Every structure is written in C-alpha cells, then in structure tokens.
C-alpha cells in the first residue's frame, strides 16, 4: 500500500516520539519530532480537526507561516482547520500538541480565536509561554517533556473556562459521525434552535457547525486518499455527492487536488505520530479513520 511507503519516507526524515501512557487530559495528544537532517525542511500543513500547538525545542530556526506569509516562531498555535500554513526550518526539534476544540477553548483562553490561522503562544499565555518553552528545552527526555507539557495544559485547563456542554456534545457527535450529521439534527438533540447552536458553536469553536463538519469529513477523506484509495471510492464512502464534490472541498481546504493531498509529506507522519488519536472528541473518545 502507498501508506506504508509514505510512513517509511516520513520515518527517514523524522525521529518521532510519542508518550508511553495515555494522558490525564482527554482530548489531547502529543508527539515529539526531531529532523534527521540539518538541511532545510519546508512542509505544507494539511488542515486537521484540532488546534495545534508547536513548541520549538531547537535554536529558534523553526518558523510557521500562515497563508499571507506572516511568520511566528518559538511557541506557535495553528488554528482549527487553518489553510495555507507552512512550517520551515533547519535541524528542527519540536513538541506538538493537538487539542480538541472544546479543550483548546479552556487551555488557550476564552479570548483566543481557535479558527485563527497562526498566532504566537506568547500572545495567549503571556510570560508563561516562555517559561514553559524553557522547561521543555531543559527536560532530559521526551517522556519528561510530555509530562511537563501535560502539567502545563492541565493547569491551564483547570483554570480556564469550559465550553457549554451542548457545544462539547455537538463536537463529539461530529467526530463520531465523521462529519455526517446535519446541523438541524444536532440542534434538536441538544434542545437549541439552529440559530443559537450556530452562534454559540462559532463563538467557542471558531468555525460554524457546517464548516466544522466539513473539516472532519475532509480529514477522514484525506486519510483514505493517503491510504491509496481512489478519489471515486473515497467520495462514495465518505459522504460526498460525487467525485467532483470531493475535489472542490479538498481544493477549498488545501488548494491542492485529491491526488496531491493523498501524497502530502506531512500527512504521512500521522500513522506514526498520531496513530492512537486519529480523531479527538471533547471527552477523549478516539475514532480511527478506516
């Protein structure tokens, strides 16, 4: 299968570390990356249904740019479903954290905009961002880094403001259905009007319910494409009206064709780095792509 070849290619570029145990905070996954080359690495980031925090553990050579070319370094937050994001650097070492949107709301602060493209962690955490980064750099092992990162996240989560249970429930249903549930049905299930759900969900998650469901469905389709399935088959099995519908949506999220997305280098690391947490719901439920 092509996915096995991609995984080997990813392993040839990166040393990837993952925690040896499940974390205390549901809806969170972590992985450590260290480039096996000192040469320039320039990668497009495929949109994913989680908010991503990347902390540079090297000498500050890693930068993350949004679609407009604005660059951030150090500790960087990539918003939910951000399009046109690229990571670039030499001799890269970083820790990445994927946060389900309801968890991200509490961890990153109610004033944060989860749907924003790329922001500095310092803008959200202030001086604490630099302290956390230094503690992660000083750690003697990946396990120690994961433990220190988790402690910082738990502290922030407990001090933060949780989203409404209805919003968390709706996100969980989207994840479980792989984006296949209609917004009207979700509103009825939580006893809200469609307008109220639309407003609260957008304010807390950063995307409208429709766009969030599209993102979850796209992510499932992208992994099927990366596994070597044809675009026609993926479209038929992931809820798209036809292959043209899949093509339009993939282009909208990535600016690339389904064929190009299926071979995306960054997507290839998912089977190694995020195998245990393919999708993250609000309560930590894992739903792996078929």
UniProtKB/TrEMBL annotation:
InterPro entries: AraC_XylS_family_regulators, HTH_AraC. This is Helix-turn-helix domain-containing protein. It comes from Streptomyces bangladeshensis. Keywords: DNA-binding, Transcription, Transcription regulation. Residues 164-264 form the HTH araC/xylS-type domain. The keyword DNA-binding applies. It comes from the Bacteria. The lineage of its organism: Bacteria, Bacillati, Actinomycetota, Actinomycetes, Kitasatosporales. Pfam families: HTH_18.
